Amino acid sequence: MKMEKMMKMNVLFALVLVSGLALGGCTKDDDTWNVSELANAREDQDVGGLLMVPLTLIQSAAGKGAVCMDGSLPAYHFDPGHGSGANSWLVNLEDSGLYFRGQRIYEAAMEELMSKGMRNADQAFLSGCSAGGLAVVQHCDEFHGLFPANIKVKCIADAGLFLDAVDVAGGRTLRGFYGGVVNLQGAAANLPKNCTSQMDGALCFFPENILNNIQTPLLFVNTAYDVWQIQESLAPKSADPTGYWDSCKKNYTTCDAKQIQFLQGTSSAIHITWLYLDIAFNV
């Protein structure tokens, strides 16, 4: 436990950014939003206690046009590391609501963090969950590019493997959603050029279409049956107007044989993607 305490790294709970799309990370009126609860590993406090980390506004963001939808400043929570972990950085991209100007906010945030000591990192880790996991995929190489070549940089996307899957009505709900984002925000300009040069920008939101060109070590954590994707991408109300899938997508034990077969097909698609990942990073 002593060693764990001494090696405590810089922890940052920050903005969730996906190209021109940013999810979360903006200020709110509720004062209770101004703190995050992190597991406490300080020597002068009991293990298992809570460490309240204050909110830090990015004051320079406004002048760069890197603001949230209501014009408020983007923000983050920062818990400095100490001991042998003082130069180890973990940047976590959280999931929240819908925001614009994600690329500008990302750049403003990274610039501020570099000025706060991240430029001296001996190792850096970019992580995120759900939409934050997708943001990790989009920004992984960009994040790596902030550091010298000899610095260890890795990324992990938790529940960020969104699939360009066919829904229960035979359509592609998520592709349509991403297409709307790309067209509304002009996000194609901020997506990987080696992808947009070969296919429509909406398709370049899907990890399966950009993984082959990511150079930084990237890890995925994903369930075979992703609840959000089943409810919002595979069997959304728009694709299931009669409600045939309502019970099944909330409780898999109620699924009939036809529904189970459909879900197993989706699970197989994820497994195929895992195989592709293994090949891509081990050639």
Automatic annotation (TrEMBL):
Keywords assigned by UniProt, alphabetized: Cell wall, Cell wall biogenesis/degradation, Hydrolase, Secreted, Signal
Enzyme Commission number(s) from the entry: 3.1.1.-
Top-rank EC class of the record's enzyme: hydrolase
UniProt cross-references to InterPro entries, sorted A to Z: AB_hydrolase_fold, PAE/NOTUM
Pfam families: PAE
GO cellular component terms listed in the entry, alphabetical order: plant-type cell wall
Domain of life from the UniProt record: Eukaryota
Chief place of localization: secreted
Gene Ontology molecular functions: pectin acetylesterase activity
Signal peptide coordinates: 1-24
Places the protein is found: Secreted, Cell wall
KW Transmembrane (keyword) present: no
UniProt xrefs under PROSITE patterns: PROKAR_LIPOPROTEIN (PS51257)
Biological process annotations from GO: cell wall organization
Family to which the UniProt record says this protein belongs: Belongs to the pectinacetylesterase family.
Role noted for this protein: Hydrolyzes acetyl esters in homogalacturonan regions of pectin. In type I primary cell wall, galacturonic acid residues of pectin can be acetylated at the O-2 and O-3 positions. Decreasing the degree of acetylation of pectin gels in vitro alters their physical properties.
The protein, known as: Pectin acetylesterase
Organism of this sequence: Dioscorea zingiberensis
